[in-house]
UniProtKB/TrEMBL annotation:
Pfam families: Abhydrolase_2 (PF02230). InterPro entries: AB_hydrolase_fold (IPR029058), LYPA1-2/EST-like (IPR050565), PLipase/COase/thioEstase (IPR003140). Its EC number is 3.1.2.22. This is Acyl-protein thioesterase 1.
Length: 78
């Protein structure tokens, strides 16, 4: 078992993505996971995005959201 989350990790930004038609990991489990995560770190920094019709896979829309998330949280590379 891990210890409590502390220090700078309490303020880490998290993007969790889930397809609403995932047959392997039901979207309900994603919802439960994100709610638990919000009790462990700053809930304002947790984003949960679902994708209509997406199964246990990825999509262009999801990858664009991941790119936007990375771009908004990491400094640009010179």
């Amino acid at each position: 078992s891990q210890g409590p989350i502390s220090g700078a990790n309490k303020d880490i930004a998290v993007l969790q993505c889930h397809g609403d038609c995932d047959p392997l990991v039901p979207v309900m489990f994603g919802s439960l996971t994100v709610e638990k995560l919000k009790t462990m770190i700053n809930p304002a920094n947790v984003t949960f995005k679902t994708y209509s019709g997406m199964m246990h896979s990825s999509s262009l829309e999801e990858m664009m959201d991941v790119k936007q998330f990375i771009d908004s949280h990491l400094p640009p590379i010179d």
